[in-house]
Amino acid sequence: MKRHQVREVMAISPVIPVVVTPTAEAGVEIARALLAGGIGVIEVTLRTAAGLDAIRAIGEHVPDICVGAGTVWTAAEAQNASDAGAAFIVSPGISDAVGDRCAELDLAYLPGAQTVSEIAHHRRRGLDAVKLFPASVVGGPKAIKAYASVFPDLQFCPTGGVSSDNAPDYLALDCIPCVGGSWLVDKTAVAEGNWQAITDQASAAAKLG
Length: 209
Ligand code: 3PG
Prior knowledge:
- By secondary structure, the chain is of the alpha/beta class.
- It has helices at 6-10, 24-36, 51-61, 75-83, 96-105, 116-124, 135-138, 140-150, 167-171, 187-192, 195-206; strands spanning 15-19, 41-45, 66-70, 88-90, 108-110, 112-113, 129-132, 155-158, 179-181.
């Protein structure tokens, strides 16, 4: 999948599934299941040792899904994710080293922010979208509406505590083209190889837009 600007990534599907995969093989099955349900994007976190291999394997076996790397904190991790074929990089908070490396690599970057000052930091650095994390702790759609009033040129991807129940409340805001969340990829479903359960969640999520 070719490299994207971050707003292009955010426009692919109403939900960016946040995935923690135990193995590269499971990552491929998860990506297939999400795509079968109509979700065209996947954020594979680097929280497990399998993360990088999963990104590489997904790029090879499920080329129609846009695969990115999440929980990226260092420039080296961003570089490794890029080398593995990640089309975008996500950080849960501020890491300017990651932002700088993504700029060098011309790689889409979605950095995290929780406060007005953190959002302002990213904006000063020229970014036009942020991951609002953890969205439920920050105050949900109401808080993001207030944030958006002082950052009318930014887009937000709320993540953390977002579910199929409350996602529509976030997506109703103009500044929110997509939300992020782990609910599509249930741990038990992955452990049992129940890929259909993931496709079912993805089908429902794809309709949220
Ligand atoms: C993330 O890294 O974005 C979060 O772990 C996802 O949060 P959730 O599990 O509440 O969806």
